[in-house]
């Protein structure tokens, strides 16, 4: 994104967040929201196929944490990955063009929604198998430690993945070898259609590393400032050589698990209430207005800018050609 | 009813032919005496004349089809007033077929390995005429090798897939006398080829025979001497015979020839074929340039060729050509016999067993080891005197084997 | 040439590559202090220390994935599975994370990793510990799969594998670890994807890999006594398969027998048979014959186990059958 990515560390009471920081958060989260809304729209138009998992409602988590790390740190996540890429500073055009399966996409149209990467931005995907990114993230952290780079790896996964065995295998090794990894559980309450209480023996997910000696932190995943503060804590821990740490961000997704999910497993009221009372973007907007950091016109100008970025991305994603059929067989193996 | 034009029998021995060319196309008017097609037999290209007149309604066997059995319907002729509709009725009643192709796994398809198929196509062999030795009667490489070894007729053009009707079908064996117990042994390809070629030889080659006795005591002594000198070779009497034949052909070059209908072809090199018995047949691998090879070389080559022949591994170039053959049954104690010429060669020498016999030497009876050899000559090439000169030369080399060194 | 066991050749390959490239490291169960469950990593901990020779917990899914992650970040992990049977726990990472990522990323993100360990039956270790995975991994685009027989090939292929930018499945064989071969001195690299004519012959081709090459060579010796000259092809690589070498050999011999320890269904022999039909159908004088493990979980009882695995006699019998000799 065009804006400066690094914000100052706020106090836990939010008082430390400057107006500039708040506007940055606002702008970034809004971009994600508009981007995902447009993706949903394009999916409905048949321009995007297959699986498409939207991040709407959870924006505070990835924005808050991104501001707690460096561009040289590693990020890896699951299939709900569009916002993570935008947060890393990847080009919305490339992301959207991958959603439409075009040559201009980050994976040249060969990956799709769930499989995008940018080695330049140290974003390692984009993984479609629930929980698989967790040992991969531990491996990225292993490499960082092996090379003594001082880098950490943010390894995101959902609360659904937190039941996977390989998550605990990763906890064990990460703790044993003091790997600089932050395990981030984005707890959006629903593992596809199964609510957390129906699938978890013990819902305090931040405690799930305790047996491995991994400290756990819980944070409000709807509040970007709270996440930012928690991010400084957990990233600091991991970077200091103390080994892994676990952050549970309690958040909420407004949309279904994927575009094909009508979300009948929860009430409309629940979603409406969450949107009305806890929306991460509205919370920041309110603080901006409250603190007099920007007037309505300035915020409208941000809205307009974001709209343009998304419109351009959507346009690019439709104009970019489909991959050349000659590329069908390329990129399977690298030349030895 | 349309008139059936049948594959004609163009020679007494012809059982099948290749439909080389159609000179009339479907729809063409045909008058009696018109030449409508050309047929190739293994000897010549012959023309087929129409006996009836009408319009060529349908060509049943397309040009290029090989191995079309005599009396197969090759075309239908519409008589005046008939239209194409009449053809359908004829189609519905196909010419009765004798037996299915022998190598078929059923359904008319010939089972052959891909390699055998390709080899047959290259060599111009009709798979339908072969019998497969593989599982389920599959024709395999060994069968093709055997067919080629036996001198199966090679077609002029590359094979095309012949319609099933055109597959050569042997006539059923004659019905047995009632009550007699018997078993019909199916004919191998080699057997069929031997049968055909030797009948052909005996019927078409004017044979005459010259017999000569050769004393081989000196030969045997020399052989013993030579064999005692090295373990690298083990010379047989036949090796001496091969060398002697080769040198005799060089000395009497008019006998080193073959009949080519329009000429007598005299060969520049001396290539001697040696008959090798196989299970169920025989084959005649050729020792090339035998007159330029020493005894050890001849011995080794004959041995190797015979082994390869028995293993079914001879290449076609190893058993084709040669102007002269040797057949030796001495090892079976046969004192004398007459052999049939292997066409188109000029002669074959039938070699009997060397055995002690009373001979008159310097006016007194003595015992000598004598080997009787009988030369079969193709009189078209070799007259009596020429044959005798050859045998004389041969006898000289055998009786005084040191002269083969000269 | 000095004589080495396959075990020593593998160890030397890893040691040489670790000396050459600091990004290369070895991880797996018992590779360090224990010196390797099969002693393949003997001495490596002493030379390279525990930063580069890493004992893992018994957690294949986890360290399989961790290794892939490290490779994505540019390291060159050699991940040892105590046996490939245990790699089934990690197969999601091998296939979904390692093999597919380059393609899914449009060529951006590679995974230079070697998964190695003993594959196939050992001796009376029962069904769960006795399986050949050649066709499993051979099935997957994005992987290279090698399965050497001899010590020089084990060494040369492992060194090549470690340098390769792609994920490699390196299938070893416990029974072969102790077999000795001459191994060239100095730098010795063997290209992946090239078969080797282990014995020349003209009557029938016998193609196998890993321990089956031994059966094939033994069978060729038996066949020679009966006048059949068998050509033995040591495939060495399963993927990419050296189709040219197989086709060239079949063009010489016209007959083919495949040998593998694995099961027949969709096995390597089936793949080769299809390949030969596609590449050189017209050269065949007989249907391709497959010699393979019997289509059952491997039994424990000594006699039953013997019956279930290929051996030289079965290979020789198959070769005679395709030569139409009984």
What does this structure look like?
Chain A has 336 residues and is α/β, with parallel strands linked by helices. Chain A contains eleven helices and seven strands. Chain A has helices spanning 19-44, 59-66, 82-87, 92-99, 133-146, 165-176, 196-199, 224-239, 268-278, 280-290, 296-319; strands at residues 74-76, 153-158, 181-187, 190-191, 194-195, 216-220, 245-250. In chain A, the strands form two sheets. Chain A has a five-stranded parallel β-sheet, sandwiched between helices. A two-stranded antiparallel sheet of chain A has the order 4-5. In chain A, helix 2 (59-66) packs across helix 8. Mean pLDDT of chain A is 93; it is low at 1-5. Chain B is α+β, with helices and mostly antiparallel strands. Chain B folds into three domains: 3-92, RNA polymerase II/Efflux pump adaptor protein, barrel-sandwich hybrid domain (OB fold (Dihydrolipoamide Acetyltransferase, E2P)), CATH 2.40.50.100; 99-159 and 181-204, no CATH class; 206-405, Chloramphenicol acetyltransferase-like domain (Chloramphenicol Acetyltransferase, 2-Layer Sandwich), CATH 3.30.559. Chain B is built from nine helices and 18 strands. In chain B, the strands form five sheets. Chain B has a six-stranded mixed β-sheet with strand order 9-18-17-16-12-15. In chain B, strands 1-8-6-3 form a four-stranded antiparallel β-sheet, with no helix packed on it. The longest helix of chain B has 16 residues, at 189-204. Chain B starts with a strand and ends in a 7-residue tail after the last helix. The model of chain B is unreliable at 92-107 and 153-170 (pLDDT under 50). Helices cover 37% and strands 17% of the residues of chain C. At the A-C interface, helix 5 and helix 6 of A face helix 3, helix 4 and helix 5 of C.
């Amino acid at each position: 994104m065009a804006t400066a990515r690094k914000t100052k560390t706020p106090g836990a009471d939010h008082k430390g967040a400057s107006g500039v920081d708040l506007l940055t958060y606002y702008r970034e989260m809004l971009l994600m929201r508009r981007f995902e809304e447009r993706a949903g729209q394009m999916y409905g138009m048949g321009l995007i196929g297959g699986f498409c998992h939207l991040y709407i409602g959870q924006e505070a988590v990835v924005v808050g944490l991104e501001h707690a790390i460096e561009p040289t740190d590693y990020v890896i996540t699951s299939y709900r990955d569009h916002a993570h890429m935008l947060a890393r500073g990847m080009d919305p055009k490339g992301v959207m063009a991958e959603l439409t399966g075009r040559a201009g996409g980050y994976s040249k149209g060969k990956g799709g929604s769930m499989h995008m990467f940018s080695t330049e931005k140290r974003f390692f995907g984009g993984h479609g198998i629930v929980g698989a990114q967790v040992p991969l993230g531990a491996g990225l952290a292993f490499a960082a430690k092996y090379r003594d780079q001082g880098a950490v790896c943010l390894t995101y996964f959902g609360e659904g993945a937190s039941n996977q065995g390989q998550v605990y295998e990763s906890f064990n090794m990460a703790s044993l070898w003091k790997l600089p990894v932050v395990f981030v559980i984005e707890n959006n309450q629903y593992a596809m259609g199964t609510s957390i209480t129906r699938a978890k023996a013990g819902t305090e997910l931040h405690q799930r590393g305790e047996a491995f000696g991994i400290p756990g932190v819980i944070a409000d995943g709807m509040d970007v400032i709270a996440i930012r503060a928690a991010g400084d804590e957990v990233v600091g821990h991991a970077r200091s050589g103390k080994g892994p740490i676990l952050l549970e961000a309690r958040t909420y997704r407004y949309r279904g698990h994927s575009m094909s999910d009508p979300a009948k497993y929860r009430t409309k009221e629940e979603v409406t209430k969450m949107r009305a009372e806890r929306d991460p973007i509205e919370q920041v907007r309110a603080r901006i207005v409250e603190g007099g950091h920007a007037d309505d016109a300035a915020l409208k100008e941000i809205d307009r800018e974001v709209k343009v970025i998304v419109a351009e991305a959507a346009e690019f994603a439709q104009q970019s050609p489909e991959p050349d059929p000659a590329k069908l067989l390329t990129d399977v193996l690298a030349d030895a | 009813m349309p008139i059936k034009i049948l594959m004609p029998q163009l020679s007494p021995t012809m059982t099948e032919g290749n439909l080389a060319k159609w000179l009339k196309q479907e729809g063409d008017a045909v008058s009696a005496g018109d030449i409508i097609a050309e047929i190739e037999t293994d000897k010549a290209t012959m023309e087929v004349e129409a006996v009836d007149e009408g319009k060529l309604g349908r060509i049943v066997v397309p040009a290029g089809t090989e191995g079309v059995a005599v009396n197969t319907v090759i075309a239908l002729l519409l008589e005046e007033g008939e239209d194409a509709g009449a053809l359908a009725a004829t189609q519905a009643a196909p010419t009765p077929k004798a037996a299915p192709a022998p190598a078929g796994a059923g359904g008319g398809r010939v089972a052959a390995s891909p390699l055998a198929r390709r080899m047959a196509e290259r060599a111009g062999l009709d798979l339908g005429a072969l019998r497969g030795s593989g599982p389920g009667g599959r024709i395999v490489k060994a069968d093709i090798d055997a067919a080629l070894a036996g001198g199966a007729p090679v077609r002029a053009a590359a094979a095309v897939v012949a319609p099933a009707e055109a597959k050569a079908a042997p006539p059923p064996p004659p019905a047995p006398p009632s009550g007699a117990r018997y078993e019909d042994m199916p004919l191998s390809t080699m057997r069929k080829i031997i049968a055909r070629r030797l009948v052909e030889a005996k019927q078409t080659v004017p044979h005459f025979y010259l017999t000569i006795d050769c004393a081989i005591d000196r030969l045997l002594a020399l052989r013993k001497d030579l064999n005692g000198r090295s373990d690298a070779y083990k010379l047989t009497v036949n090796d001496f015979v091969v060398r002697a034949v080769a040198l005799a052909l060089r000395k009497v070059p008019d006998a080193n020839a073959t009949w080519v209908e329009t000429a007598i072809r005299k060969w520049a090199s001396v290539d001697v074929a040696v008959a090798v018995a196989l299970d169920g047949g025989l084959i005649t691998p050729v020792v090339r340039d035998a007159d330029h090879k020493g005894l050890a070389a001849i011995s080794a080559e004959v041995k190797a060729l015979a082994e390869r022949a028995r293993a079914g591994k001879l290449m076609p170039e190893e058993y084709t050509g040669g102007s002269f053959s040797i057949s030796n049954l001495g090892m079976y104690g046969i004192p004398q016999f007459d052999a049939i010429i292997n066409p188109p060669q000029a002669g074959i020498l039938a070699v009997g067993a060397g055995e002690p016999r009373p001979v008159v030497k310097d006016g007194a009876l003595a015992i000598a080891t004598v080997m009787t050899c009988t030369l079969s000559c193709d009189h078209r090439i070799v007259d009596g005197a020429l044959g005798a000169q050859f045998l004389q030369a041969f006898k000289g080399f055998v009786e005084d084997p040191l002269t083969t060194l000269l | 040439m000095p004589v080495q066991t396959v075990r020593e050749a593998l160890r030397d390959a890893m040691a040489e590559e670790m000396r050459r490239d600091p990004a290369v490291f070895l991880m797996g169960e018992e590779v360090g202090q224990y010196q390797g469950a099969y002693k393949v990593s003997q001495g490596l901990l002493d030379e390279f220390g525990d930063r580069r020779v890493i004992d893992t917990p018994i957690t294949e899914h986890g360290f399989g994935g961790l290794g892939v992650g490290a490779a994505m970040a540019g390291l060159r992990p050699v991940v040892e599975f105590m046996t490939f049977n245990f790699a089934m726990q990690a197969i999601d990472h091998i296939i979904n994370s390692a093999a597919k990522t380059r393609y899914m990323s449009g060529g951006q993100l590679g995974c230079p990793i070697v998964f190695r360990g003993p594959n196939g039956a050992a001796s009376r270790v029962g069904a769960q510990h006795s399986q050949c995975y050649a066709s499993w991994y051979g099935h997957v685009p994005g992987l290279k799969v090698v399965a050497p027989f001899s010590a020089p090939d084990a060494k040369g292929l492992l060194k090549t594998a470690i340098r390769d930018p792609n994920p490699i499945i390196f299938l070893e064989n416990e029974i072969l670890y102790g077999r000795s071969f001459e191994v060239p001195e100095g730098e010795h690299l063997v290209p992946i994807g090239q078969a080797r004519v282990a014995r020349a012959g003209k009557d029938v081709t016998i193609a196998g890999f890993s321990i089956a090459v031994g059966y094939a060579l033994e069978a060729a010796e038996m066949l020679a006594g009966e006048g059949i000259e068998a050509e033995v092809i040591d495939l060495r690589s399963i993927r990419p398969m050296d189709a040219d070498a197989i086709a060239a050999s079949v063009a010489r011999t016209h007959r083919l027998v495949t040998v593998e320890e694995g099961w027949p269904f969709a096995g390597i022999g089936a793949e080769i048979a299809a390949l030969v039909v596609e590449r050189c159908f017209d050269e065949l004088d007989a249907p391709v014959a497959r010699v393979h493990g019997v289509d059952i979980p491997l039994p424990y009882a000594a006699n039953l186990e013997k019956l279930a695995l290929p051996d030289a006699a079965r290979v020789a019998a198959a070769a005679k059958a395709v030569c139409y000799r009984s």
